[in-house]
Amino acid sequence: MHPSLPIIVPNRAQTLDVLRLMGTHRPVLMLPGGDDGYGTRWVIDGQQVPPAIIKYLMAEGFVAESGVTEFGARELTVTDSGHRFREKGLLWWKNLGVFQRLSIRIFG
After folding, report:
1. Which of 15, 20, 48, 61 is the most buried (most CB within 10 A)?
2. Nearest 5°: phi and psi at 39?
């Protein structure tokens, strides 16, 4: 990707929801699939996180691997830049009107 091109946040409302759920202590668990990555799942509190969202958060450095569970799942936690991104996102969301929020929920 060209460095001057803006990176678009996938499904902004759902991305913000994932960061809210993670908070400061809840990890996203990466459950490995096959060797080629096919079948890999990301979950938080038993709910699957869409791959586009978690891959975006990892690529931007907002979440990072913090360890491995005893069952082999990798734990991803929010980084310092992820905390700042979440706070900016919460402020942005708070300043939106009802119809803007609805539009973003429906259309991404």
Report:
1. 15
2. 90, 0
With a cut of 60, say whether residue 36 has pLDDT above it. Answer: yes
Q: How many CB atoms neighbour CB 108 within 10 A?
A: 13
Q: Which pair of structure tokens corresponds to residue 36?
A: 């080629």
- Three-state secondary structure of 46-98: CEECCHHHHHHHHHCCCEEEEEECCCCCEEEEECHHHHHHHHHHHHHHHCCCH
Task: Please classify residue 24 by burial: count the beta carbons closer than 10 Å to its beta carbon, then call 0-12 exposed, 13-18 middle and 19+ buried.
Answer: exposed
28 forms beta bridges with 76
pTM above 0.85, yes or no: no
